[in-house]
Amino acid sequence: MRALVINCTLKPSPQPSNTEALAATVIAALKGHGAEVDVVRAVDLNLKPGVETDMGDGDDWPAVHDKLLAAQILIIASPTWLGRPSSVAQRVLERMDAMLSETDDEDRPVAYNRVAGVLVTGNEDGAHHVISEISGGLADIGYTIPGQAWTYWHLGPGPGPDFLNDERGHDWSVSTGRAMASNLVHAARALGAMPLPAPPS
Questions:
Q1: Mean of the pLDDT values across residues 139-148?
Q2: What does the pLDDT read at residue 82?
Q3: DSSP string, the chain
Q4: Average pLDDT over the chain, rounded to an integer
Q5: From CA 11, how far away is CA 44, in angstroms rounded?
Q6: What CA–CA distance (Å, rounded) separates 122 from 83?
Q7: Are 198 and 108 in contact (CB under 8 A)?
Q8: How far, CA to CA in Å, does 158 sit from each of 83, 124, 150?
Q9: Pairing of strands 150-153, 115-121
Q10: Distance between CA atoms of residues 87 and 12, nearest Å
Q11: What distance in Å separates the CA atoms of residue 95 and residue 75, rounded to the nearest whole number?
Q12: Whether 6 contacts 43, CB under 8 Å
């Protein structure tokens, strides 16, 4: 089983990423269930604006799209900014919009029989809103969202410390992330054993 984590931090490599640090704990849990995990740091790529799979010369999205199609599990990891997903996360979802019109050999949307979850960090409130926005978009595209397929970390509304600079709340975020990983893996296995059919015409 293969999983893909798309880190939608605004910080280019090699800057430390709080979102990457929390994602690492979920990645470890996924690997503990036998999953192979790829990680994409979207801000490091040239993801052109648009809603097509390939926006032309220099567009790095087609390679990410290939990774999406190779993975049974997707996690979108985003910081919270102004109570919303990062602009990078929004760009990723916009590029995934093209998948709505893509089908497999059995005329199923290509996101069918794949599962997805969301991971959020931030020093302000709004994690549940970000989870809802991203989960809603992924469900529209065709992903299955298992129960409790998310984790997050923040220390309440307003400015505050970052995940990498404050140990408070880590235990809850990590244990919730382990549950998230387990639910994603087991839901993916269930869909693999009994896949969704193509939508009725």
A1: 97
A2: 86
A3: -EEEEEE--SPPTTS--HHHHHHHHHHHHHHHTT-EEEEEEGGGS---SSSSS--STT--HHHHHHHHHH-SEEEEEEEEETTEE-HHHHHHHHHHGGGGG-B-TTS-BTTTT-EEEEEEE-SSS-HHHHHHHHHHHHHHHT-B--TT-EEEE--SSSS---GGG--TTHHHHHHHHHHHHHHHHHHHHHHHHSPPPPPP-
A4: 95
A5: 9
A6: 9
A7: yes
A8: 10, 5, 22
A9: parallel
A10: 13
A11: 15
A12: no
Minimal CA–CA distance to 43: which of 75, 91, 93, 109? 91
Rg, C-alpha atoms of the chain: 16
Query: Which class for 90: exposed (0-12), middle (13-18), buried (19 or more C-beta within 10 A)?
Result: middle
CA 42 remoteness from chain centre: 11
121: tokens are: 């960090």
Q: Which residue has the higher pLDDT, 22 or 155?
A: 22
- Block residue for tokens 């015409």: 201
Predicted pLDDT at 164: 85
**C-alpha–C-alpha distance, residues 180 and 118, integer Å:** 9
| Confidence label for 166 from pLDDT (cuts 50, 70 and 90) | confident
